[in-house]
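Here is one chain, start to finish.
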Amino acid sequence: MLLPYFKKDEIEAGCDEAGRGCLAGPVFAAAVILPPDFTNELLNDSKKLSEKRRNLLRPIIEKEAIAWAVAKLDPGEIDRYNILWSSFHAMHRAVDQLATRPSLLLIDGNRFLPYLGINHHCIIKGDSKYLSIAAASVLAKTYRDEFMENLALQFPEYGWKQNKGYPTKAHREAIQQYGATDHHRKSFRLLPNPSCDT
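Its structure:
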């Protein structure tokens, strides 16, 4: 069972990102404030859920959350600032959009760039420990997957509908054959050969 909160008397927003290790597309982040009595036996770390279950959970989270928001940073920003910084700032943008201001941020992972005026607590594998972080992981993942599937309609040769921009063999072979698009992260190693770094 995932835990409902880290501190009982805080307004906690769980925060997580999706797409950090991808070669193409934005990095997405979500922030979710759940009611203290929220329960859902299906909810877990999005990586442990099937696509069908993630898509089933998304409207439930959106309906029952006190507040939720999703934000992204595009490949150009990722190339300019680096992926770690971009992941943190995608979370900041999500928190910016929350209709209710949290008093504590629960961050999935071991590092975070402090958000002005709100305390935070980093939790390794937090998306498999706390409901609010798991909910954020589901929203970030489903919104990013949807974005990449829509982008795949314009660029079918890269297989983004299936690989969502992650570095699969087929994705790398497509980059080798067709070159990189504006949606690829030029600061990443797009091909196995180090000489292809930019």
